[in-house]
Amino acid sequence: MTRAELIELIEAQQEAGIRISFPGKSNARKTGRRVRPRTLREVKSLGAGSESERARNLVIEGDNLQSLATLYKDRGQVDLIIADPPYNTGRDFRYNDRWDEDPNDPGLGEYVASDDGARHTKWMKFMWPRLQMMKSMLRPGGVIAVCIDYRELFRLGQMLDELFMEQNRLAIINWQKSYAPRNDKNHVSAATEYILVYAKDESRATTSLLPRTPEMDARYRSPDGDPRLWKPKDASGSKALKNQTMVYAIQSPFTGEMHYPQAGSCWRTAQRQLLTWIKQWGADYELRDLDDATERAKIIGISPSDVPSVMGIVLKTPLEEASAAAHQRLKAGRWPELFFGQKGTGRPALKSYLEDVKQGRVPTTFWADEDYTQPLALGTTSWAHTESGHSQTGIGELDAIVGLHHGFDTVKPLRLIEKVINLWCPPDGRVLDPFAGSGTTGHAVLRLNAETGSERRFTLIEQGRPERGDSYARSLLAERLKRVVSGKWHNHIMDPLPGGFRFAALDRKVDAAALLSMERGEMTDTVIASHFDSNRRRGPGLSYEAPAKYRYLVARNADDEGFFLVWDGPKGNTNLTEDVYEDIVAEATDANLKPIYHVYARLFLFQTDDVIFYQIPDRILRDFGLDLRGEPFSEE
Q1: Where is 458: in which H helix or E strand?
Q2: What is the mean pLDDT of the chain?
Q3: Which run of H or of E encompasses 367?
Q4: pLDDT tens digits, 590-604
Q5: Largest CA distance in the chain
Q6: Average pLDDT, integer, range 152-156
Q7: 324 Cβ contact list (under 8 Å, min separation 6)
Q8: pTM of the prediction?
Q9: What SS3 class is residue 221?
Q10: Rounded to whole angstroms, how far apart are CA atoms 6 and 434?
């Protein structure tokens, strides 16, 4: 057994909780470690943006399990994973039985019918290794959000509970995908779907506040002419039993009525502060023992003999004089922060100022439209405001960008994905979507970056339908992102979104023999795809340089350091010699690069302090997570 397998076995033996069981689970647990990484071949025409913009984001065409194995250098670096796997409806999920023995088998398998007795088992065998891989991609405080409907909700939840542990479950979100009930249902029409949210480590994860809406801010006004907008809030709050000394009477300066907190409540502000505010109504007050233990005991919920001694806030000025002064102050405006309604006849209330409230709102587990309208057409400058959008909204958004007849009928609304990103990905974070579909996640990242000035990055994986010669990764996902980056939508021009992405296709398996047989162009793609610097893992990847201009220079990093490839194919020059070094220095000078030279080559025949050397194939194999002793996949 490998070290990772041994640790997993020990954890399974020690854990006393409920564990899901299904045929083939033992094999599924090992599948991820048996998948071979692949080389990534860039398709320039399908990307968008400048070289530096392309280096920030990546779209991979190919199987997501193989892609996740290929992204070894990004292990532990992803802030948020958004996964929208097949819902196992009988028309959206394929399974190849040969994967049980060889997960590298290229066959797609057949669609799993809704009446297949093993459909749930096949779906779990498909999902288990992918969820394992996704977990390893997350940083310690990272979060995964998995979209699902009722068909596999319970099985997915059990798998996530076991893989991530129940204490790391942050939310089960219920979002409204439609509001019109279907008449073909005999019992209950499904109008919602779910997002299961788990942290890799709940204690290290962060959930942000959602942006405040204009409707929320509109509740703050100034009926008294106060220069600061406010709305009333109850002067009392809960937990009377815990704060018994904050349960006492406050006498109104308008009516003389003695006001107590409501049952189970206490005043939420210190008595000294309340006394200061109430005196601003023009009357004098004092603290006085009212012999009201019985009244206060009822509010707290204890015996009168147990009530602590607390004095009430009582008028010292005669009521008639106090009431006249209070009405005069009410008419003058700019009332004190403790007031008694707009006419002076209400219970004690406090002003809650807009500038003092949190600049955001705490999310809840039910997400629905605020106005419950379904946009039938998208305007060229703005869209109808929704909280998360209906499923039809997502299709309408895609129609507007790439045109009709795209063949995609399960599109998540843009605002739904933006909301997930806002909550669980920091402004400079990384988002991974292994079931990218039409590219909604990438679009959401680009739009949020443009709207908020954030610098989030994305990696999207999509296989599409290669059996039909129709790769959604090419014809739909890449096309959508190119259109939103350029602003050239289907029938109208929109403001372009800044950014770009690199498009790469999975190619052949990575091993020493395959690497040593590569031509220069393929080796260049492999170097750029595999390279990482542990000090810069959270930064953008390498940017390509024009291949026709230089013999050795292939890329640069964000610090303007050059990367050079000494490789003329398997039968050409592959070694770093003194003559090659001099040419590298000249190319770096011409490209205005710093005098630190990162060189990939077969042998290091000329050594100098300003060269950082990467040996082919050893360094590339190691960067793909392969063990050099026998080249099985290694988590270490």
Answers
A1: strand 457-462
A2: 86
A3: strand 366-367
A4: 999 999 999 999 999
A5: 106
A6: 95
A7: none
A8: 0.75
A9: strand
A10: 27
